[in-house]
Specification:
Elements lengths: L1 H15 L6 E2 L2 E5 L2 E10 L4 E6 L2 E8 L4 E9 L4 H7 L3 E6 L2 E6 L8 E10 L4 E6 L4 E6 L2 E6 L4 E6 L3 E5 L4 E6 L3 E5 L4 E6 L3 E5 L4 E6 L3 E5 L4 E6 L3 E5 L4 E6 L3 E5 L4 E6 L3 E5 L4 E6 L2 E5 L4 E5 L9 E5 L4 E5 L5 E7 L7 E3 L4 E6 L7 E8 L5 E6 L4 E5 L3
Parallel strand pairs: 4-8, 4-10, 5-9, 5-11, 10-12, 11-13, 12-14, 13-15, 14-16, 15-17, 16-18, 17-19, 18-20, 19-21, 20-22, 21-23, 22-24, 23-25, 24-26, 25-27, 26-28, 27-29, 28-30, 29-31, 30-36, 31-37, 32-36, 33-37
Antiparallel strand pairs: 1-7, 2-3, 3-6, 6-9, 7-8, 32-35, 34-35
């Protein structure tokens, strides 16, 4: 109902524009078991493009031309040409002010046809806004902003100079290179991004999220899939309902949360917060960390970083914890194993003192405390059942 109301509003705007708009029939021919209507045209003097299809695919391609040209193929799944003509609806193509409109009018809920629209536009277009009730959408080589909404198709974008917003009810989304912010959402498809200079906000109901490079902040969220980010210059927040999280080199703080999957990070310049309901955590280079898993091991490498003031906490209910510490790292250590029968705390540092409590046959607790390089931010390490190791980090 919401989409229908939006479409009616667009049609109402087009009708209100008056005599500038025109409908076209074009040529009609047979292709296999379908009837095809082909309509083409040209629009000039526009800095913006608005496209609205009841159902069908859209491709927008930027180039060196000064005007906008389009070709639309409409396919009707009917037995006769007469039936096809009744299914084909008028196409409105107009220019009003600085905006070009291409609208396939709606209203026939029993219509059995779909559209395939290709539009060539000037590369310096300010805005391309595309809406389709259910079809694939692609946009390439546009200097301005791109806004896309599809009821269920795939979305492809590349070489976009402005901000990007895209939404589909269930298809995959793929983004190449963009200079602006990127905000995309799909009901269940995969999201793949190559290189983005602006902020990232990627959301999928159940697919995977893969990002090669982002220069600024990134928010990545999936209901069930995995998340992989190779490089990002800013703050990163990654959340999944059950998949793995694998992050590379991060230039800011990091928040990672999975309900069940493992977590891995190559490096981060800010504080790292990693939580999983049941998987391992591996953080290869960080300054301060909060890492927690309900069942799994934890491996963390803490290095000397300027202006580090935050405490670190590592905790697992069942699993080993291994901490690599730089020789010149000023830190205060407190560690404990609650059920230590068969488990121990190992340390490469003489300043960390290990104490065992409890008898040979009863419950045994092992704790450790110490200050390295005079002490500093607190590092608290705890496992209910597992080994703890403090090892020297190799540079």
């Amino acid at each position: 109902m919401k989409r229908a109301l939006k479409f009616v509003s667009v049609v109402a705007v087009v009708i209100a524009l008056g005599a500038i708009g025109f409908g076209q029939e074009g040529r009609i021919y047979r292709e296999g078991s379908t009837w095809v209507q082909e309509v083409s045209g040209e629009l000039s003097g526009a800095k913006n493009l608005r496209v609205k299809l009841d159902a069908g695919s859209v491709k927008i391609q930027g180039g060196s031309q000064t005007g906008i040209t389009y070709v639309i193929h409409r396919r009707a799944y009917t037995a006769s040409e007469e039936q096809a003509r009744r299914q084909f609806q008028r196409i409105t193509a107009i220019t009003k002010g600085d905006t070009a409109w291409i609208v396939a009018e709606g209203g026939n809920l029993r219509r059995k046809c779909s559209d395939d629209l290709v539009v060539n536009v000037p590369r310096n277009l300010d805005l391309a806004k595309i809406e389709t009730g259910g079809g694939n959408v692609s946009a390439f080589a546009i200097a301005g902003r791109v806004e896309i909404e599809s009821g269920g198709g795939t979305i492809q974008l590349d070489d976009i100079g402005g901000a990007v917003t895209a939404e589909t009810g269930g298809g995959a989304i793929e983004v190449g290179k963009t200079a602006g912010d990127v905000t995309v959402e799909t009901g269940g498809g995969n999201i793949k991004v190559n290189s983005v200079k602006g902020d990232l906000k990627l959301t999928t109901g159940g697919g995977s999220v893969i990002v090669s490079s982002g220069l600024r902040d990134a928010i990545l969220e999936t209901g069930a899939g995995s998340i992989r980010l190779e490089k990002c210059g800013g703050h990163v927040k990654a959340t999944t309902g059950g998949g793995t999280i694998d992050l590379g080199v991060i230039g800011g703080a990091v928040e990672m949360e999975s309900n069940a999957g493992s977590i891995r990070l190559v490096s981060a310049k800010g504080h790292v917060d990693a939580q999983t309901g049941g998987g391992s955590i591996q953080l290869d280079s960080a300054s301060s960390v909060r890492a927690e898993t309900a069942a799994g091991g934890i491996i963390v490498k803490l290095l000397t970083m300027a202006d580090v003031r935050k405490a670190s906490m590592l905790e697992t209910s069942a699993g080993d914890i291994t901490v690599y510490l730089a020789d010149d790292l000023p830190i205060t250590v407190r560690a404990s194993i609650e059920l230590a029968n068969g488990h121990s705390i190992r340390s490469d540092f003489g300043d960390i003192r290990v104490l065992t409590e409890g008898g040979q046959w009863g419950p045994k607790t092992v704790t450790a405390e110490g200050q390295l390089k005079g002490g500093g931010p607190l590092l608290k390490v705890r496992t209910s059942s597992g080994n703890i190791s403090f090892l020297r980090a190799s540079r």
